[in-house]
Amino acid sequence: MRPTTSLRRLAARIDAATPPERDRAVDALRAFAILGVVLGHWLVTAVVVDSGSVHVVSPLQHLPAFTPVSWVFQTLAVFFLVGGQVATKSYVSAKARGTSYPAWLRARLTRLFRPVLAVLAVWTVTASALLLAGVDFGTVEALVKLVLSPMWFLLVFAALTAATPLVRRLHPLWPLAVVLHVDLIRFAFGGPSWLGWLNLPAGWLVPYCLGAVWAREGLRGRMTGWVLLVGGVAATALLITQAGYPASMVGVPGGRISNLNPPTLAAVTFGLAQCGLALLLLGPLRRVLARPAAWAAVALVNLSAMTIFLWHQTSMIVVTALGLLAGHPLLGLHTTPDTVSWILARLAWLPVFATALTLCWLAFRHHEQGRRRSHGPTLHVASSAGAERLQPVR
User: Domain extents for the chain?
Assistant: First the structure.
């Protein structure tokens, strides 16, 4: 059978297995959010090998003109928007069926955290082996931090998911007001820096609550999307140009302020703009995803969303390590990211990173998808925090 014929048949099977009431655009937004984070990390993270040691730097330190990349690929607000919408609908549906809150929460969180155990196990063994082999502690620490640091948002997301019954009717303006006042105290009145960590739950609660409003059908009409998009862009621009917030929407090593760690008001207003754009794209996405091939691609990404996210940094590290076999530093892989040629070289490395990630996916996808049962495979499309089955694929 020709490969194209097999792909068409697979797409047709996935399309047939999808309930007609499923909003495919929601899955597309989730897939875009995950892939945006992956590509963003690959583009703004450089593992530099210098005199036998390894340290992590960012091209944003050396190339300010590269800052707009952070506007495109820092897509966490969309992930929390979709998460709030899906979790709220799921909780209301489970409650109507008589499912207990503990049972609902366990189902939501199991698929979120099950693949994390595999990453922790592999890197515990890897870090131990590197230290025993004589690799200096600073290098091992840098690599482990690179792998584990993106997982912070899973803990925040799990906490918001657990609080869904309480926050599902909370208006997004309330957590937004918390972020505003925290930043005023920190930056305008010289308050303690630790106060900013209140923004970690409050900042991501804004798009999560917006998703809950969406689940209650409170975001009807394109006007809401335009208000969020235009208002969010205008507010973010004012905060950057007039209030001294950084232009980068991700942390830059050595920067005075990070918009992401913890979230600032600028990160939240930028996230509102992203949410507005996401809402405006729902109609076009639904039309595109009516095509079986397009929907199959989105469904397959969602099928392994957490696996893709959890192993993308490991994939980059593996390619970087194998590149050392060349005997000299490779541009875009081991060198300092301070030239345009580094950016061009890094773009050329992206397909190699993707290939390594595919191998990691083949090895570890079952930790997310679960073992197949004897009655036949079931197509799962990963929700933001739990498995959502479509129906058996025959």
Answer: 24-369
